[in-house]
Write a structure and sequence with these properties.
8-stranded parallel barrel, TIM Barrel, two-stranded antiparallel sheet, single chain, binds orotidine-5'-monophosphate, about 270 residues
């Protein structure tokens, strides 16, 4: 999917919501545990109830890898279901990969070619040759960690390197890489006061913004400083939506939470 198509979807649905499919078998309704594939059954119900309210889904691969082969199969079924039933929806493999070039090439193949995700999250720590293999895929996107939502973001990302914060170096240097038009960036909703500076460096690039809901980030602040002329935002919520209820009404409860966020997003889209 191109970023232009993504923006069109956002304007059409009046939503830049990304729903995080971070499935924990200890948190899903008990009755699903008797299903042959409880993780997929949960995801399918959530997708069926929420697809009209969001423009993206983001399974975090940790929650699938934790269940071994069964987890990986559930991830495969989930992405296939999305690609067949909702090809207009943007998909993110939240895998936070990155390694020496020839290893990154295999990670890129796994997520962008084999599983056919639209994008994958990547850590920039190993530099240019660890990221460029992901960027080679046409109309696929590499979402680089820039300024993350957690407290540990201040351990390295905001430290000064050559008189400039490290996350700013990541933004500036990555713009010079080949196929950099395929880059998007992760910026945490909990770091809203940094968005204006970030937009000075990357005015139009899409930002994946996790951290609203369970982590306390504020949607209005994110939009005020983060929205660009092509919207340029995908705001993620995982636990706040998918675990709204752990009873028989879990999918409807998730849809209600997603709708609350979508309505707030529609208001923001009118403002900017
Ligand atoms: O790359 C991410 O998506 C990510 C980056 C970041 O800085 N912070 C962050 O929370 N995430 C992910 O976004 C999701 C947030 O989940 P909730 O806090 O439950 O909404 C999890 O899958 C995290 O791994």
């Amino acid at each position: 999917m191109t970023t232009q198509q993504l923006t069109e979807q956002i304007r059409k649905k009046k939503s830049f919501l990304c729903i995080g499919l971070d499935v924990d078998l200890n948190k899903i309704p008990k009755h699903l545990l008797t299903e042959e594939d409880p993780i997929f059954a949960f995801n399918k119900a959530i997708i069926d109830a929420t697809h009209h309210l969001c423009v993206a889904y983001k399974p975090n691969t940790a929650f699938y890898e934790a269940y071994g082969l069964k987890g990986w199969k559930a991830l495969e079924k989930t992405i296939m279901y999305l690609n067949v039933k909702h090809p207009e929806i943007f998909t993110i493999a939240d895998a936070k990969r990155g390694d020496i070039g020839n290893t990154s090439r295999m990670y890129a193949k796994a997520f962008l070619e084999d599983l056919e995700f639209d994008s994958v999250t990547v850590a920039p720590y190993m530099g240019k040759d660890s990221v460029e293999p992901f960027l080679e895929f046409k109309n696929k996107h590499t979402i680089l960690l820039a300024l993350t939502s957690n407290a540990g973001a201040f351990d390295f990302q905001t430290l000064s390197v050559n008189q400039k914060e490290l996350y700013k170096q990541v933004l500036e240097t990555s713009k010079t890489w080949e196929n950099s038009e395929n880059l998007m960036y992760v910026v945490g909703a909990t770091k809203a006061e940094y968005f204006a500076d970030i937009r000075n460096i990357i005015p139009e690039a899409f930002l994946l913004v996790p951290g609203v809901g369970a982590q306390g980030g504020n949607l209005q602040d994110v939009c005020k400083y983060g929205m660009s002329s092509n919207v340029g935002l995908l705001v993620n919520s995982s636990r706040g939506i998918i675990y709204a209820s752990n009873r028989g009404d879990f999918a409807q409860a998730a849809a209600q939470k997603a709708e609350d966020l979508q309505k707030d997003m529609a208001q923001e889209l009118i403002k900017y």
